[in-house]
Specification:
The protein is mainly alpha-helical. The chain has helices at about 1-35, 40-80.
């Protein structure tokens, strides 16, 4: 059963690749490299901004969680310390 699915998936991937490859070749033939890269600048700018926001939010959250963990750990250590009396 798994092998049948694998064959089906590879056929779909082959057809998709052939379709994409044919489309790229057609664009290059009709419009050249300028036509192929048209609109790439705004997309790259959008992706860069989106990635920067994601990275910023991840790092901010990570640091907030780390600070809270360290604060709670320090409070827990203070509560555990018991003064030793000579007696």
């Amino acid at each position: 059963m798994t092998q049948v699915r694998g064959v089906g998936v590879s056929k779909v991937v082959a057809v998709m690749y052939d379709g994409v490859s044919a489309t790229v070749k057609e664009i290059l033939k009709e419009e050249g490299w300028v036509g192929l890269t048209r609109g790439m600048g705004p997309q790259v700018l959008h992706s860069a901004c989106f990635s920067a926001l994601g990275y910023f939010s991840f790092e901010t959250t990570r640091l907030s969680i780390l600070r809270e963990y360290l604060r709670r750990k320090e409070l827990g250590e203070r509560e555990i310390e018991v003064p030793v009396s000579d007696g």
